[in-house]
Specification:
By secondary structure, this protein is of the alpha+beta class. The protein is built from ten helices and ten strands. Bound molecules: zinc ion.
Length: 349
């Protein structure tokens, strides 16, 4: 848990361990007056540091603490206490204090974060900051956790990546363990820019989520509307079928009535025809009877060769034409004998 960054009094600048190692001359380990922090140096509560080169066991080069007088006096670097209490590195402590300054320095309720207030959880092994947002973005986020990860294994295990934790709570993870010493001194890039990028990502995630929810709702509404439409369509179809059925029934009724009427007419005509037939049959029978009677009378005259004033030769000839050949022959003979050849018709017709 050494330092990657130190305050170099001689240049009055913060330098990385790489910069410090480059300042060494040969095997001479001296690089200048190195301290944990400028503020600690000024308040005389800091730790003086030395450079430690990369170990043969692969341990990275770092700044390390001299046996410190401030530590013994009980006055000691706040960041050292912070890193110890959080089971973290001094690099973590640097990012933590820088984030503390940065977040609290942002104007409240302004783009892009719309900060209401910042709090720092006192428990260890959990996230480092709570950022509460104003109502301006309450539809998306009300709270965002900020986690800085370097060496604390429990935190590394628990906080993997930037994501939406639940509902309107987001989480931004800044992992500095892969930063080089030079990068660890660049809070503007490794801290602020990274934080802004992660916030953009979080917002995009939320927008996508809201879009998905909206789409799902729209789809649900559309499905409901489709059901309503389908029911209405079904109802309309049923009504149409009923109307058609009614129309068809009316037509059937009308046709049946027409058929009934036609049948009645047929019956009436048939009755009339039957009456006519009966009348005709009666008339024919009467005529036949009359003819038979006349024939009998004629044959009586013919058989006895008598002349009757009531049945003249014209009438006799008329009856003869209605008779069979032999009878006709007899009547013609009779007419010839009694009235001469003038009344004989064609024998062979
Ligand atoms: Zn310090």
């Amino acid at each position: 848990m050494g330092w990657s960054r130190a305050y170099h009094f001689n240049s009055d600048e913060y330098i990385s361990i790489n910069d410090a190692m480059e300042m060494r001359t040969g095997k001479d380990p001296r690089v200048g007056d190195l301290w944990c922090h400028k503020t600690c140096f000024n308040a005389k509560i800091g730790a003086q540091l030395l450079t430690r080169q990369q170990g043969s066991d692969g341990r990275k080069a770092c700044f390390a603490k001299w046996p410190g007088r401030y530590e013994q006096s009980g006055q000691y670097c706040g960041q050292k206490l912070l890193s110890d209490s959080k089971r973290e590195s001094m690099d973590y402590a640097y990012f933590y204090t820088e984030f503390d300054k940065y977040l609290n320095g942002i104007e409240k309720n302004k783009e892009p974060f719309f900060i209401k207030r910042i709090s720092k959880p006192s428990e260890n092994n959990i996230h480092d900051f709570n950022i509460y947002h104003t109502n301006e973005i309450s539809e998306m986020f009300t709270e965002t956790e900020l986690v800085i990860l370097d060496e604390n294994k429990r935190k590394i295990k628990k906080y993997v990546e930037t994501k939406i934790v639940e509902g309107k709570k987001g989480r931004i993870v800044i992992k500095i363990s892969e930063y080089t010493p030079a990068q660890l001194t660049d809070f503007a890039r490794g801290g602020i820019d990274k934080f802004k990028k992660e916030w953009e990502f979080l917002q995009q995630q939320k927008k996508n989520e809201l879009k998905r929810i909206k789409k799902a709702l729209e789809e649900e509404e559309e499905a409901e509307a489709a059901v309503v439409r389908s029911v209405a369509k079904e109802k309309a179809a049923t009504e149409e079928r009923a109307a058609e059925e009614k129309k068809a029934a009316a037509i059937r009724k009308k046709n049946a009535a027409a058929k009934e009427k036609k049948y009645e007419e047929f019956l009436a005509e048939e009755k009339k025809a039957a009456a006519t037939r009966k009348k005709n049959a009666a008339a024919k029978e009467k005529a036949d009877e009359e003819e038979r009677r006349e024939k009998i009378e004629v044959f009586k005259l013919v058989d006895n060769n008598q002349v009757d004033a009531n049945i003249g030769p014209e009438k006799m000839k008329e009856i003869a034409e209605k008779c069979e050949y032999t009878d006709r022959l007899h009547i013609y003979y009779y007419l010839f004998i009694n009235y001469g050849p003038g009344y004989i018709g064609n024998l062979f017709e």
